[in-house]
Amino acid sequence: MNKNNYCVIMAGGVGSRFWPFSRNHKPKQFLDFFGTGRSLLQMTIDRFRPIVPIENILIVTNVLYRDQVLEQIPDLKAEQVLCEPARRNTAPCIAYAAARIQAMEAIKQKGERRKARIVVAPSDHLILQEETFRQTIQQGFDFIDKNDALLTLGMKPTRPETGYGYIQMGDEAKGDEARGKGICKVKAFTEKPNLELAKVFLESGDFLWNSGIFIWSLDSILNAFHAYLPEMANKFAEGENVMGTPEEDAFIQTMFPTCPNISIDYGVMEKAQNVYVIPSDFGWSDLGTWGSLYELSDKDENENVTLHSDATYYDSHGNIVTLPKGHLAVVQGLEDCIVAESDGVLLICKRDAEQQIRQFFMDAEVKFEGKFS
Amino acid sequence: MNKNNYCVIMAGGVGSRFWPFSRNHKPKQFLDFFGTGRSLLQMTIDRFRPIVPIENILIVTNVLYRDQVLEQIPDLKAEQVLCEPARRNTAPCIAYAAARIQAMEAIKQKGERRKARIVVAPSDHLILQEETFRQTIQQGFDFIDKNDALLTLGMKPTRPETGYGYIQMGDEAKGDEARGKGICKVKAFTEKPNLELAKVFLESGDFLWNSGIFIWSLDSILNAFHAYLPEMANKFAEGENVMGTPEEDAFIQTMFPTCPNISIDYGVMEKAQNVYVIPSDFGWSDLGTWGSLYELSDKDENENVTLHSDATYYDSHGNIVTLPKGHLAVVQGLEDCIVAESDGVLLICKRDAEQQIRQFFMDAEVKFEGKFS
């Protein structure tokens, strides 16, 4: 296994869109989402183990979840869990991990800089075809070995999804390492489209779903931060000597909260000129919504989805039901609803109202003083 | 307190209409229905304590529930719980209790027969104005002291309820003991009417709801059984010498299952000529249906009812929600539904589909081999 391969897992989310299934003390990435016995985080780590040495896997998370990470992934060392003292967005998260990898490389190589390759991935996505996924990552590593590129994975769309951002493909990349893999320059990133526009995107064949999975060399991403987020990059550079030492924690405690709340897409990818995309197809979902979970789950003859528990349906259609394991739901006269129970909270709402779930969560947080959060 | 006052509580029902709230192992009468800390059975007993000596209270139930009765009413002696070895209807239940009371009276009076007065009541009804209830019972006792009468309590209807049977009032009873109390001969018992007929009943002022609460003397009910259900009456008479002795149990085990499955209304009340009704008004519900529970519960501004648990409603109207204590329901986009969770079973159904709940229960019983029954 290539000792230069690094993996950065972003695991700081709170997943309130899946409340009450996800909770403040146990967000989505830590849940056994499908009742398989493995959490999404565990599945994510397992997916990388064959291609990234375990000591090169870094988890960036909120300090609140540090112990849960170490409990779920017992062969991680404590220092592999990077703790954000404040909730920022993906750019500071990735910059922190890059600074740490820089320090790790400096120690390993004793001054002789080799090409560290980094894959950055969310901790709470679903990937069905793991071998294809790893082949894609490997192709990405091969590409960035030869090119100073910020490479993103774009998913071939299968439906006019309005819940994802899209990437418009531009010219094909040149060179053996790109040939036959469809790697392209990125022409544009787009926000989540409305349904009409999503249909146009789908039909054009020029658009891919933005997966939030990135591949780049350490040098490329450090250069990009200095070019597009120089203030933040300088803050991290000031701590270069303490990264990976006992002083790192104090430095991060003070510095990190001063970082801007900005995403890597907005802060870097949309501005850089060397952004590429590798069209991918390995059964991916960001599991960002009940809708996406509903879409990819097995349905009965009335399009009802049941997860974890048993359920019997009468005159009911298009529902997604998840109760604690061993429980039974008997549902009559219900159409297109989400029914989710976890830890003393039962949510019943229309599937098309799921964007309100965050609000339900916040209302309950205030009303019940965090008891059900 | 009058030592001749007896009370027979019928507590053998399974209450599957309230599944999953009521369960085979814990039917409705044993549940703390309103979260007050007292079960319906306990509330029923408490209601009679001021007018019936505790040693004169008999509970007739299925042998399965014997221990639960004794646990919930610790000052009952074991022999006060009459166990039906098979599920019959109210006529055999009442005949069994009458036979036992006959034996108790024979012992107490050493041959000198006094006038034992019996009130028979279900164990799972709600009565809000308990003092008025007891005054009504006392008036009934006064009436049957002077008259060989089978007296039933008829509730003054407040709405065109289609879930109850009705009693049509006939001529007023004569005598001081009836005067001013409105006691009447019963002209007819009617089945549950449709809505149109129920409206006619309500407007006429001649009809009362059939409560299933009866008052009679021991002699009157024994005579009535001999007149209208002679075969069954003879079976009980054959055991006269063993009632109240250690041999009673063996006798009942053999004999009781041979009794017909027949209600007291159909077997006696609709046939006898000396049937009277006392118009009553003490805030009564048979709690026979979710609908009746919904009707009598406090509602929020959107006509939602929440029992036991917390609930927050969005765009929702006319629901009744009951979860285990300490749980929270968040409900959006739901109209006129029952949401009930208990012991690992969640039921969601339309309020107007509640007559199907028994079927849901039976389906689940078969499908899950009694696991959720």
Q: Can you list the strand order of the major beta sheet of chain A? A: 6-9-7-8-10
Largest interface: A-B, 35 and 35 residues
Q: How confident overall, as mean pLDDT of chain A?
A: 93
- State the total count of DSSP E strands of chain A: 17
C-alpha Rg of chain A, in Å? 21 Å
Structural class call of chain A reads alpha/beta
Low-confidence spans of chain A: none
Task: Describe the main β-sheet of chain A briefly.
Answer: 5 strands, mixed, barrel
Strand % of chain A is: 15-25%
Q: Tell me the span between the first and last alpha carbons of chain A.
A: 42 Å
The ordered string of helix (H) and strand (E) elements of chain A is EHEHEHEEHEEEHEHHHHEEHEEEEEEH
Number of contiguous helices of chain A: 11
Give the fraction of residues assigned to helices of chain A. Answer: 25-40%
- Mass-distribution shape of chain A: globular
Your description of this structure?
The structure is a homodimer of 373-residue chains. With 373 residues, chain A is α/β, with parallel strands linked by helices. Chain A has helices at 40-48, 66-72, 90-109, 130-146, 195-204, 218-228, 230-238, 248-255, 264-269, 290-296, 357-367, and strands at residues 5-10, 57-62, 81-84, 117-122, 126-127, 150-155, 166-172, 184-190, 207-217, 275-280, 284-285, 305-307, 310-314, 320-322, 328-332, 337-342, 345-350. The first copy, chain A, has a 5-stranded mixed beta barrel. In chain A, strands 12-14-16-17 form a 4-stranded mixed β-sheet, with no helix packed on it. In chain A, a hairpin with a 2-residue loop joins strand 16 (337-342) and strand 17. In chain A, helix 3 (90-109) packs across helix 6, helix 3 packs across helix 7 and helix 6 (218-228) packs across helix 7. Chain A is globular, with a radius of gyration of 21 Å. The model of chain A has no long low-confidence stretch (mean pLDDT 93). The A-B interface holds A 20, 310, 312, 314-315, 323-324, 326-334, 337, 339, 341, 344-350, 353, 356, 360, 363-364, 367-368, 371-372 and B 20, 310, 312, 314-315, 323-324, 326-334, 337, 339, 341, 344-350, 353, 356, 360, 363-364, 367-368, 371-372. Strand 17 (345-350) of chain A pairs parallel with strand 15 of chain B.
